[in-house]
Amino acid sequence: MKIYADNAATTRMSRAAINAMLPYMEEIYGNPSSVHSYGQKAKEALEDARVRAAKLLGCSPREITFTSGGSEADNQAIRSAAAIGARKGKKHIISTAFEHHAVLHTLDALKTEGFTVTLLDIREDGIITPEQVQAAIRPDTCLVSVMYANNEIGTIQPIPEIGKLCSESGVLLHTDAVQAFGSLPVNVETLRADLLSLSAHKFHGPKGVGLLYCRKGIPLTPVITGGAQERGKRAGTENIPGIMGMAAAMEEAAVAMEKNRAYVTKLRDRLIEGLSAIPHSILNGDAEKRLPGNVNFCFEGIEGESLLLMLDAKGIAASSGSACTAGSLDPSHVLLALGRPYELANSGLRLTINELNTAEEIDTIIAAVSESVETLRRLSPAWKDLTEGKREFLLK
Ligand SMILES: *Cc1c(COP(=O)(O)O)cnc(C)c1O
Q1: Type and span of the H or E element at 30
Q2: Residue among 179, 224, 290 to mutate when testing ligand 1 (max atoms within 8 A of CB)
Q3: What is the pTM of this model?
Q4: How crowded is residue 65: how many other Cβ atoms within 10 Å of its Cβ?
């Protein structure tokens, strides 16, 4: 049996999303910038997708820019806010230590351009408080960027409260809502976000397409320069099939959200309960304020990468953290930010499930993880030291 439990990395495309794309590859393949009928039909579809996406996010269609995905949307949001800040002599940005690398590496680049960045520490529950943000705001702060839900540990951040205090302080708020869409309500007014990023492939849409919401009146700086597409905010021929697939996936995800959330939360809690029975293990991130499909554990005395390989051999697809850090043996920056010591941060296992998973699969995963952890511990010199009392256990 094959079990896919890596939905935070990417999801299977839905039939509706695939079907929504096909006509725009086979028949309506014009370039939306062309004046002939082929182009105009594509242009109509593009604007229709924008209207549908805007309706779901509670904004106006003009506030949506289609991008190549979440990374590009994050880059553009941050660079645009930074450019606005720089014009006013405000070059301080607040973010968190557990953002996606699309945010963190963009901030690193801005540091070389004279910006100062404050990365907020993460408490052990994996949640940033509005008080932390408030305390970090300075007269020269131009932007706060805090993700809505974390991609590794699934914790949900109090974005509406952070948004309120940002608007009171005259600071822009960007939120990376890539992991949230389809699992949590994403309405830009409720969230009080000025900028918000989404990526289609995280909610059963195609890869290589996403969007950036930008509140009216806030000028976006193009990251990709060239033609005048997307009202001059993003050059390049629009990815019409991708955009149509994303619009369909968004609608489907919004309709099914409540039902899926209830079902997936039950599976998640069953999985958490099962894995908690493994001795010397710990759940990373708050048990309740987390995405319905996210489970993330550390198991003392083992290496996450070995556990992954063993699970893969049993047909189970999981992750040791974000896909970007997988492949390198650096421990997850998120688990380190959470305060896990290096050797524990190296033992992380992320299982991200959704409505396509079943209770039987959950039980299979629990059995496979328990068995694999036991096997790895038998082979582990670190575990030997722990059991022989040469080193203290970090986890009960
Ligand atoms: C996947 C992900 C991204 C990147 O999106 P892409 O479309 O793959 O570029 C950004 N932020 C978060 C939180 C993600 O999970």
Answers
A1: none
A2: 179
A3: 0.96
A4: 23
Catalytic residue numbers, as ranges? 324
Mutation to probe ligand 1, out of 197, 199, 209, 291 (largest number of atoms < 8 A from CB): 199
- Collapse the DSSP code of 212 into the 3-class scheme (helix H, G, I; strand E, B; otherwise coil) and give the result: strand
Among 309, 308, 313, CA closest to 351? 308
Q: Delineate the domains of the chain, giving CATH numbers in brackets.
A: 3-8+256-387 (3.90.1150.10), 61-238 (3.40.640.10)
Per-residue pLDDT in tens (0 to 9) along the chain, 396 residues: 899 999 999 999 999 999 999 999 999 999 999 999 999 999 999 999 999 999 999 999 999 999 999 999 999 999 999 999 999 999 999 999 999 999 999 999 999 999 999 999 999 999 999 999 999 999 999 999 999 999 999 999 999 999 999 999 999 999 999 999 999 999 999 999 999 999 999 999 999 999 999 999 999 999 999 999 999 999 999 999 999 999 999 999 999 999 999 999 999 999 999 999 999 999 999 999 999 999 999 999 999 999 999 999 999 999 986 555 555 567 889 999 999 998 899 999 999 999 999 999 999 999 999 999 999 999 999 999 999 999 999 998
Q: Give, in degrees to the nearest 5, the angle at Cα 6 between 271 and 54.
A: 110
Query: How close is the Cα of 181 to the center of ligand 1, in Å?
Result: 12
CB of 90 within 8 A of CB of 258?
no
For ligand 1, atom 10, name the residue with the nearest CA: 70
Q: Is the CB of 372 under 6 A from ligand 1?
A: no
Q: Output the residue whose Cα is nearest ligand 1's atom 5.
A: 70
